[in-house]
């Protein structure tokens, strides 16, 4: 009970001060120094509407923030559904194109996604998310769904594989130009793309010609390799220096086809 007395006294003092303020408004100024208490209480009274408006503004702000958060979540959900729809469309187009490649080659195809790419000083490789568990093995050919040559499987693990691309210095393939039918061996050259070797000086090879696989090795014929980008001739050399720009470099893709 003793602890409650200070609170009772304070409550009585507040009621008394308010009573003095209201009495002064009806009966004129009163004595015994109530005006000392009047100013703070009058300030609170005159600003009570402002405080109410301020409290109402805070409530409205919280309400708007909550509504905005709901709208954000709904927008994210809509964008997610749109992304899923676009991804499904992309997959459908991908499989339709690759069906044409399957009919052309008459071989079984395995589909995979790229998840890591490395272009270093000595190699040009990337990893795919398919491995021995789906029948992939070393040496299998890797292309786009249109039949553009990317490389070959150089290492196969249980659930992923390493692809050595045609830019890698260790990559070689027998090839020929589509228009002039000039043959040679295409070798990877990292940032320089590829070089078509064994093209003698007398052969009339042209810049811009399409280079395709000849089928004289274990690669299927007619796979698109790239375009002849630059030709250097020298009377003192037996062979021309023929630079090739790989075709897959001009494409944006995340999926590949493995030919079994």
UniProtKB/TrEMBL annotation:
| UniProt entry keywords in alphabetical sequence | Cell shape
The Rod shape-determining protein MreC beta-barrel core domain sits at 125-260
Show the InterPro entries listed in the entry.
Answer: Cell/Rod_1, Cell/Rod_MreC_2, MreC, MreC_beta-barrel_core
> Would you name any one GO CC term?
plasma membrane
Output the PANTHER family linked to this UniProt entry.
CELL SHAPE-DETERMINING PROTEIN MREC (PTHR34138:SF1)
The record's listing under Gene3D superfamilies reads: Rod shape-determining protein MreC, domain 1 (2.40.10.340), Rod shape-determining protein MreC, domain 2 (2.40.10.350)
Of which family is this protein a member?
Answer: Belongs to the MreC family.
What NCBIfam families does this protein map onto? mreC
GO annotation, biological process: regulation of cell shape
- The protein's name is Cell shape-determining protein MreC
Query: Which Pfam families does the entry mention?
Result: MreC
